[in-house]
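Appendix B, example 12.
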Amino acid sequence: MRSIGLAGTPPTSRSWYSRLSASVGTATALAMLVAPSVASASTTDRAQAATPTTVATAGVPAGFAPTSTSWTGPADGWVLGFAPCRAGSCPTLVSTSDGAQTWQQHTAPRVSSTPDQTKIHFANKLDGWTTDGQVLMATHDGAGTWRRVRLSGAVGSVSIAKLASTDRYAYAIVTYGVGSTKTTQLYSAPLGEDNWQPVAGVAVHGSGGWDIATHGSAAYVALGVIHTSLRMWSAADGSGWTEVEPVCSAHDAVRLSSTEPDDVEGMCSFGPERGYMHKQLVESVGGAAPVVLGYAPTTGITTGFATTSAGSTVVAGVGAGASWLHASFDNGATWETPLAIPDVQLPMLDLDFQDAAHGVVVWGGPAWSGAAVYRTTDGGHTWSQLTL
């Protein structure tokens, strides 16, 4: 275990880190590292009075395989997936407004299933975005209609990674350019608008990645290229960005979470091996230097990270014969494993908490040999598969 702060010793698996940095932990990178037996991927309110205009169709179609989920509260959630159709496999979008008791089908964005993850993110009942990594689409009427949006200045090869939002802005981590001109940058747009612009100064040179964390109006972003650079910024109002000390080192795969406007936690993962990875939990309060809180179990390559205001911390991983959720309920001092799905090793994605009790995670996806959404209603102590 690394116990000398945030500097550490550079891991040796640079090629894997390069893939993970570019894809932010997607299936393509994971398949190279978890184990030889891993399943292979195939190519197969703004205003309270506002009401979505979409016409929902009851139920979930047979054969539906979830790829991504986004929840705006304990009762309100969206799941994007793919289902059999005349064309083979078509995007399908469903939502719940009663905590997954019932589901309604909506107009789905025209996105493709990829060997990585096709993502969806909603900020509220009206504003949502989806990406297959190449294009970004938006809805501002609760999935009634979708349109492709332009990322100003993103030229050459474009890769869209993390999607996130505050109560005022939407964000995306975008890598663009060719060869030595590659840049990884934060993009932003006001909620309800499609004017996506690069955030001045919030960028790193090269093909990189990492994460965004938000709480209320506040946001944090970490951008980096593994073993080369890591920079981090915060914005109390979601738009006035100030560079801060990174919570991890340039040699780490970085995941962020925030449960208070002036508090950000990081899961700094390093030293990847076949199915294992060191995982260091850190915290920075009020812009202070990060403090190490503890170490999660090494089992599994890190694919997700989330915290709650009640002190729960959950990290997702895949490898060593299973898919894993490791959890701490005492701010990182001790750890247990509330969920392990054995035999078929699939990534656990979109791990997120809506409040201190309710959280969700996607297991696998359409490009893999299995797919499901799991949910907790007790702060991460137990997880149950949703009926979809």
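Residues 253 and 269 are 5 Å apart (CA to CA). The radius of gyration is 19 Å.
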